[in-house]
Amino acid sequence: MFFRVPVLMQFLFKRRIWRGKDSSAVYLTFDDGPDKDTTPWVLDLLKKENIKATFFCIGQNIENNPSLFRDIIKNGHAIGNHTFNHEKGTDTKRTTYINSVNKTEALYSSELFRPPYGRMNMFQVSKLISMGKKIIMWTWNAQDYKKSREHAQIIDKAKIIQGRDILLFHNSKKSAENMKKSLPEVIKIVKQKQLLFKLLD
Ligand SMILES: [Zn+2]
Predict the structure, then answer these.
(1) DSSP state, 62?
(2) pLDDT single digits (tens) 5-23
(3) Out of 22, 31, 77, 144, which one is annotated catalytic?
(4) Which of 55, 101, 127, 155 is surrounded by the most beta carbons within 10 Å?
């Protein structure tokens, strides 16, 4: 897998949103929370850095961590839907998948949706778009969840970040170490590039 998603892939899956609109900004996103090991830490850092981000939350984790979920909202961040049980779309029947999205929607309504693993089939894409969802992908993936990834590599790859990029980090136990060691440096590099941090719209 690549840090930067190839342009060809973005072209092949045109109905999904790969980049933000503002070339003077990047869009920071966190998948898989709320999570007690990482979300409070991220909220503190973002407050200190005066940055708003978008959290693509798993329904089951919202149910398990309701006060943490409220903290994300209270801090002015945006929420997106990331299914209820982190189903991989390509391994899941359409009705099961849509039910999972709706079950999460019942906890918090958002037009933003991100497919777990970035995987869904064309029928699921069509259905979600017809339901008014924006399918949000990413252009730069920290791969903070990978055991083989060194945080120094993540920081090094931040050099290629450019305007309109959607940046992907995770709020989960397995991403905790890499995320905590790299995110502050990545933020610093983005600020040095004179890029703003914006919410997805
Ligand atoms: Zn995920």
Answers:
(1) H
(2) 888 888 788 899 999 999 9
(3) 31
(4) 55
Give the amino acid at 175.
S
Biggest alpha carbon–alpha carbon distance for the chain: 46
Residue 10, judged by CB atoms within 10 A of its CB (0-12, 13-18, 19+), counts as middle
Catalytic hit among 77, 82, 151, 170: 170
pTM of the model: 0.96
| Domain span holding position 181 | 7-197
> Among this protein's residues, is 170 annotated catalytic?
yes
Burial class (CB in 10 A: 0-12, 13-18, 19+), 121: middle
Q: Which residue has the tokens 């995110």?
A: 183
Domain of residue 78, CATH code: 3.20.20.370
Instruction: Tell me whether residue 87 is in a domain.
Output: yes
Q: Which amino acid is located at 190 in the chain?
A: V
Encoded tokens for 154: 């993540």
Cα(31)–Cα(89) distance, integer angstroms: 16
Number of domains in the chain: 1
